Amino acid sequence: MSSLKQQGGAGLPIALFIITVLALLVIGMAQLQQSSGESVSLQIQSQRAFFAAESGAQVAVREALEASSCAAITTPVAFSTPGLSGCRAVVSCESVTEDIGGSGGDTVYTIVSEGQCGAGPDQASRAVEVRVR
Question: Which is nearest to 37 in space by CA: 128, 122, 118?
Fold first, then answer.
C-alpha cells in the first residue's frame, strides 16, 4: 500500500492539455472552412455580376444601334435565365456625333452597364463600359 502513495498523477493534466489543444485546432479549422466558403460564395456572385453587366451592355448596344438613339435603351435589365436570376443590369448611354469618316456612321455610343447580383453582405456589382458606332 505504501507504493501507491508515492506515485504521482501526471496523466490527467497531460490528457486535459491534449484535449484542449485538439479542441482549439478543431475550432480553428471550422472557422477557416467557414471563411473559405464565404469567399467562394462572394467570388461566384462577383462573376455573376460581371456576366449580368456584359449581358446588359449587349442588350443596350442592340437597342441603341437599332433605334440610332440612346433613348431606346430600357433600364434596368432584369434577367430570368437560371444563371442570372436575381441579377440586374443598370445601363446608361451617351452619344456623340462627329465627322469620323469611314464605315459605321458618325455617332459613337458610350454604354456603361453595371451588373448587380445578390443582396446584403453577399451583394456584388461589376461595371462594363462599351463604345460602339
Answer: 122
Q: Residue with C-alpha cell 485546432?
A: 25
**What does the DSSP 8-state code read for residue 69?**
S
Four-point Cα dihedral 109, 47, 85, 70, nearest 10: -10
Contact 114, 125 (CB under 8 A): yes
Predicted local confidence at residue 89, as pLDDT? 94
| Cβ contact 113:128 at 8 Å | yes
pTM: 0.69
Question: How far is 126 from 43, CA to CA, in rounded Å?
Answer: 12
- Contact residues for 53 (Cβ-Cβ < 8 A; gap 6+): 89, 113, 114, 115, 126, 127, 128
Query: What are 62-86's pLDDT values in tens digits?
Result: 998 888 888 888 889 888 888 888 8
Instruction: Determine the residue type at 99.
Output: D
